[in-house]
Amino acid sequence: MLRIAICDDDNFVCSQLEEILLNLGEAYLEKLDIDIFYSGMELDKSIQNGESYDLIFLDIEMEHMNGVEFGTKLRNEYENEITLIIYISSMENYAMQLFQARPMDFIIKPLNYEKISKVFETALRLILKDNEVFQYQTGHTVCKAPLKDILYFESVNRKINIITTRRKDIFYGILNDIYKNLQAYNFIYIHKSFLVNYNHIVKFEYRQVTMSDNRILPISQQNRKAVRSLQLRIERNK
């Protein structure tokens, strides 16, 4: 599912763009979750409240906080380099102002199906290309960690420690939800508090595993048989 935001102070443009996107979603068999905002301030408030988007269609000429101001804030203050921005405007002379927001594309109004279809196809390709990453949020910052770099997840109360080859980070989440998304990528539940990447296990023992960062993690008694079965299955598949 793609999370998309439309931000334009023109009701007609928002409705038109939403209808085109929903049709494109059906055409590409991609489920879309679309939020509409009529000012940059509304969109900014949503981001502050923890919402995140894969793609934002952003009008430039808006009062109070225009599209350039919001886009620059998203990149620099919220440190979000992941969300794709497509600017829409009735004027073409914004090239230099848009540079700091690093948009994916720029569409001149009036909008039509052909214009939106072209940029949507490109955006979809870029977003799906990054599918083999784990996305999480810390504060207002959306982060992505390549699956191959993740060693393990550790659950501590309602917080999750994610340990990668580069760093350790903390976010709010539920370990079982993470497992449901990552089990197809050889992530193994060895303990109610540990979800590990099989590819980063350097030593398998009956009661424990040693990870590539040399940390030894326990295999709970109730998980030992299942872990052994998963180990054998993964080795067979390899």
Automatic annotation (TrEMBL):
Segments forming domain Response regulatory: 3-124
Gene3D superfamilies documented for this protein: 3.40.50.2300, LytTr DNA-binding domain
Keywords (A to Z) from UniProt: Activator, Cytoplasm, Phosphoprotein, Two-component regulatory system
SMART domains listed in its UniProt record: LytTR, REC
Cross-referenced Pfam families: LytTR (PF04397), Response_reg (PF00072)
Secretion signal, residue range per the UniProt entry: none
GO molecular function (one): phosphorelay response regulator activity
Modified residues (4-aspartylphosphate): D59
InterPro entries membership: CheY-like_superfamily, LytR-like, LytTR_DNA-bd_dom, Sig_transdc_resp-reg_receiver
UniProt domain HTH LytTR-type: residue ranges: 134-233
Stated role: Required for high-level post-exponential phase expression of a series of secreted proteins.
The name this protein goes by in its record: Stage 0 sporulation protein A homolog
Record lineage: Bacteria, Bacillati, Bacillota, Clostridia, Lachnospirales
